[in-house]
Amino acid sequence: MMRIWFLPLLLVLSGSVIAAGQLLRGNPVAAVVLLLLFALLAAATSPLIFPRSIGAQEAQRRSAADGRPIVFWRPGCMYCLRLRIRLGRRARQLHWVNIWRDPAGAAMVRSANDGNETVPTLIVANTPHSNPDPAWVREQLASSD
User: Fold this and answer.
1) Are 77 and 120 in contact (CB under 8 A)?
2) Where would you find the membrane-spanning parts of this chain (predicted)?
3) Residues 65, 85 within the same domain
């Protein structure tokens, strides 16, 4: 659980220290701007902007029922963040599995990627795709509608 929040907490702490330094130098505007920037980075790397994660077995069950793809991801992954942002609202159509919370999901990712935990890994029709292009993922979602 703590590993998920390590990077966002580190960013908030670092931003607070840097902002305090700017305040001590008499630059309150710079302090506020830096604190906001670090807070935004912390939010972007936190699990808060991702749809609610489910377990790998539950994702497989749901995917079999509705045909929607499964995305294996982890907090702090910039490629996962890029995929999430580029999908926009369509990201909610996918089943998201956080591999740091689900050992079975991490094992599935390793088996699909020669032992590596390469994320995002997308499972479409039981075929894994490592770090797919977001445009391709949008096409897959459009074809499943």
Assistant:
1) yes
2) 29-50
3) yes
